[in-house]
Design a protein that fits this description.
By secondary structure, the protein is of the alpha/beta class. 46% of the residues lie in helices and 14% in strands. The protein binds 3-methylbut-3-enyl trihydrogen diphosphate (IPE) and magnesium ion. 3-methylbut-3-enyl trihydrogen diphosphate binds next to helix 1.
Length: 223
């Protein structure tokens, strides 16, 4: 969900006002996902690299994400949305935020209409590092045989092993990068880039992306 800072700067506002404006973008897009009948949607809310931002902004984002979660979870739950988080739960994530994450996951765990996953304190390489550490420990303890390590087994060590690989990846704000997002999972995803800044993004923009996706031919290495 990129472009909040630039959206705000263009209006002479503070960067954090751009983050605040991103809330409506997110929940309109979630409504769009429900309308489309998408079963899975994952959004990049905070990366392991975002800690490098000024302390004020980091603090704002932590409080903002927490407020957003508490303010919206009942509505999401009522709509049949399962809310989940991928990323590192420890480190600098405040214990209170972690508790709200766990409560929200437990509260919505049985919902199946849409799984809305927040990548929060998430990095694609961090995910692989965390997984490989557990895999190596399991090999050391003879719980797995190194010769049996294959793609299917590596998947079991990702943050959300049951999450299907994304069909479509949308990047906003005119940046042509992956920025450490779902590195393993997007091997065959269709990439869609738009100039739209995240706070301006609405369900119609999601529909545009899905329409373009539908026109693509996916071969997965075959012909
Ligand atoms: C994305 O918007 C929000 C987060 C990373 C939390 P940015 O803050 O990266 O906005 P730009 O890229 O500076 O415009
Ligand atoms: Mg950015």
């Amino acid at each position: 969900m990129d472009g909040n800072g630039r959206w705000a700067q263009r209006r002479g506002l503070k960067r954090t006002d751009g983050h605040a404006a991103g809330e409506e973008a997110l929940f309109d897009t979630v409504e769009g996902a429900l309308e489309l009948g998408l079963a899975w949607m994952t959004v990049y809310a905070f990366s392991t690299e975002n800690w490098r931002r000024p302390l004020d902004e980091v603090r704002y984002l932590m409080n903002f994400n927490e407020r957003l979660l508490l303010g919206r979870r009942d509505d999401l739950h009522a709509k049949g949305v399962r809310v989940r988080f991928i990323g590192r739960r420890g480190g600098r994530v405040p214990a209170r935020v972690r508790r709200h994450i766990e409560d929200t996951e437990a509260m919505t765990a049985k919902n199946r209409r849409l799984t809305l996953t927040f990548a929060f304190n998430y990095g694609g390489r961090a995910e692989l590092v965390d997984g490989m550490q557990r895999l190596a420990a399991d090999a050391r303890d003879h719980r797995i045989d190194p010769k049996k390590v294959d793609e299917k087994m590596i998947r079991r060590y990702l943050y959300a092993p049951d999450m299907p690989d994304p069909d479509l990846l949308v990047r906003t704000s005119g940046e042509f990068r992956i920025s450490n997002y779902l590195l393993w999972e997007i091997a065959y995803s269709e990439l869609y880039f738009t100039e739209t800044l995240w706070p301006d993004f609405r369900r119609e923009h999601l529909f545009d992306a899905v329409r373009e996706f539908q026109a693509r031919e996916r071969r997965f290495g075959a012909i």
